[in-house]
Amino acid sequence: MIAGYRIGPDYIEAHEVFVAEEAGEAGKPGTPGRVLGFYALLLTAAELDLMFVADDAQGRGVGRLLVAHLTDRARGAGLSAVRIVSHPPSEGFYLSVGARRTGTEYARPPAVMWDRPEMILPVA
User: Fold this and answer.
1) How big is the chain by its Cα radius of gyration, in Å?
2) Closest CA to 122 of 62, 65, 79, 78
3) From its phi and psi, is residue 7 left (phi > 0), alpha (psi between -120 and 50) or beta?
4) What is the model's pLDDT at position 76?
5) pLDDT tens across 63-98, in order?
6) In whole angstroms, how far apart are CA 78 and each of 4, 44, 74, 93, 105?
7) pLDDT value at position 27?
8) CA distance 82 to 98
9) Where do the domains of the chain lie, and which CATH numbers do they carry?
């Protein structure tokens, strides 16, 4: 569903993007680690724009760490909830961290070819 999807510098410059990464090399302060996941929060729209966790990092708590950071950031920005339009296979994860289903965002070919669950995540 998301094969070939790329995030470039323009996106990162225009949005708040937060990254979870592995620790860098031991004994080398400042050495970046491998990116395990990231998310982008749109504060003006109170919406999670993107959230991805590397396939081999799923099930290790990275997504929950990112959601905890997201809720803290949203709360700090004065939001009471964040809208999520989920990749369909990720719906169960979002429900497990407190989101609730509010509807369906219908496909808009050719940009998006599938229906997606719409949810709200309370953060207050």
Assistant:
1) 15
2) 79
3) beta
4) 97
5) 999 999 999 999 999 999 999 999 999 999 999 999
6) 35, 11, 6, 24, 26
7) 60
8) 11
9) 9-122 (3.40.630.30)
